[in-house]
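User: My instructor asked us to take a sequence, write out its structure as tokens, and then describe one feature of it. I'm not sure where to start. Here is the sequence I was given:
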Amino acid sequence: MEEGNPLLSIETQMLALFGIIVASILGIMTLQGLKEQQSGVCPGKDYGFIDTLPKISTTILLATAVYFVYLAYQNHMARPDNPRLTWLMIASIAGLFGSVIRADIAYLSVMPTAARLEEEVE
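Assistant: Let's start with the prediction itself. The structure tokens for your sequence are:
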């Protein structure tokens, strides 16, 4: 591996792991907001964050997935004869594909609104 590359430092890896933790917390906040909204606990509360938080969480997860694929690739290139690093790279690529699918759902899908569902029922 390249010496002095800041992307390969332990601090950058810890930052990426922190990003995953933040994305998970945002996902939990979204689920809690959906639960509150459906149960009607706070009828006057603005639940606009339910649409925004999943997109932020997905963006963070996608960025960390790209970083971990890069990190696995660098490790694999440094020691190509190690089969564990090959499997680590394959697992990182699978994680990246999962993040891309989640991003597709979060950004490109059109979620049905209550008005649209009522129109379809009529």
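For the description part of your assignment, you could build on this observation: The radius of gyration is 19 Å. Try explaining in your own words what that tells you about the chain.
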